[in-house]
Specification:
Radius of gyration: 23 Å
GO molecular function: damaged DNA binding; deoxycytidyl transferase activity; DNA-directed DNA polymerase activity
Shape: globular
Number of strands: 13
GO biological process, one term: DNA repair
InterPro entries: DNA/RNA_pol_sf, DNA_pol_Y-fam_little_finger, Rev_trsase/Diguanyl_cyclase, UmuC
Family: Belongs to the DNA polymerase type-Y family.
Helix content: 25-40%
Structural class: alpha+beta
Order of helices and strands: EHEEHHEHEEHEHEHHHHEHEEHEE
Distance between the termini: 59 Å
CATH topology of the largest domain: Dna Ligase, domain 1
CATH superfamily of the largest domain: DNA polymerase, Y-family, little finger domain
CATH architecture of the largest domain: 2-Layer Sandwich
Strand order of the largest sheet: 5-6-1-7-8
Protein name: DNA polymerase IV
CATH class of the largest domain: Alpha Beta
């Protein structure tokens, strides 16, 4: 029996894809989803013009004058992320989310055809039920599965088989290794490491002193084929978070109280739909001054997902706090438990 195969599933240009689900007229046009004055996500046609996340609107429009700008649909994105996670769980017993739109899956098979069939089903259902393009990569470790999904983008399915796996552990350049940043790349270049095969000429102690023990160990494991292949599942949600901004693109500004009511409503709806209830809520306030975000928290004895209950408690938190001018606000419903396990208060 061979090594089990892992899947890396990643929704393509997620924010833009969600925003475009009901805008078929914009599918082939360059589109950027914008958070206030910054590009949060660019569609693939926009990326072809050099537009990318983190770019200011003015610069993006210089790159692509015909660029269509859309405000971030926070609520739709959160709902789509929840639905994606449910879809992942429907296809594998072990799912390790990496972000709202991606996850590693362990379907429990070492057979390539079986893994491909599962990946194809996942992509088909994402397209038909969620109207989202999903790329899936298949490999024997997390790194190889992630490299496979990168190779399959956009909207594809790619397999790194055993032969290609061995080739990559020789020819792969460090900049393509997930988690290796600019500082480590510079240090590896100083050691003469241009590919993974070059690690063989570097003494273990020297690599460890140059890159640190953890990174040196990881690079050696990748070279030797013993890198991380364990999907660490999240058995159930422990929190739901909703975020929003006071200012957006081509929409009226919102007050902190309006944002609060919207975000509390969203987390309560998502918890109730998932059959969960929370006993703590936190507010994350982002000051316009650029200072560190402030976190306010309160709790109750009995867990609930009732919107009215949490609206009252959250509003009290906000009204009691001296508020600076805010650019954003987040609400997290925490300490989730199955709603059917919540016992009503006796007194």
């Amino acid at each position: 029996m061979g090594r089990r195969l892992l899947l890396h599933a990643d929704a393509d240009a997620f924010f833009a894809s969600v925003a475009l689900r009901d805008r078929q007229d914009l599918r082939e046009r360059p589109v950027a989803v914008v958070a206030h004055v910054v590009v949060a996500c660019a569609s693939y046609p926009a990326r072809a013009h050099g537009v990318h996340a983190g770019m200011g609107i003015d610069e993006a429009l210089r790159h692509c004058p015909e660029l269509v700008l859309l405000d971030v649909p926070h609520g739709e994105i959160e709902e789509a992320g929840d639905a994606l996670l449910e879809l992942f769980h429907a296809h594998a017993p072990a799912v390790e989310p990496g972000s709202i739109e991606e996850a590693f899956l362990d379907p429990g098979t070492d057979d390539v055809e079986t893994a491909v069939a599962i990946a194809a089903s996942l992509r088909r259902r994402a397209a038909s039920e969620l109207r989202l393009p999903l790329t899936v990569g298949i490999g024997r470790t997390k790194l190889m599965a992630k490299l496979a999904s990168r190779a399959g983008k956009p909207d594809g399915l790619h397999v790194i088989d055993a032969v290609r796996d061995r080739e990559l552990r020789t020819s792969l350049t460090p900049d393509r290794v997930w988690g290796v940043g600019p500082r480590t790349l510079a240090r590896l270049a100083d050691l003469g490491v241009a590919t993974l095969a070059d690690l063989d000429a570097v003494p273990r102690e020297e690599l460890q002193q140059t890159c640190g023990a953890a990174m040196a160990r990881r690079l050696r494991q990748i070279r030797e084929g013993t890198d991380d292949a364990v999907v660490r599942p999240v058995t159930r949600r422990t929190s739901f978070t909703a975020t929003g901004a006071t200012s957006g693109y081509a929409r009226p500004d919102r007050t902190p109280l309006e944002l609060l009511e919207t975000c509390v409503g969203r987390v309560c709806h998502r918890a109730e739909r998932s059959g969960l209830a929370g006993s703590s809520i936190s507010l994350t306030l982002t000051p316009a001054s650029g200072e560190r975000a402030r976190v306010l928290r309160t709790s109750r004895v009995e867990a609930t997902a009732q919107n009215e209950d949490w609206q009252l408690l959250a509003r009290g938190l906000l009204e009691r706090a001296p508020l600076p001018r805010l650019t954003g606000l987040g609400v997290t419903l925490e300490r989730l438990v199955p709603a059917d396990q919540v016992q009503g208060a006796l007194f």
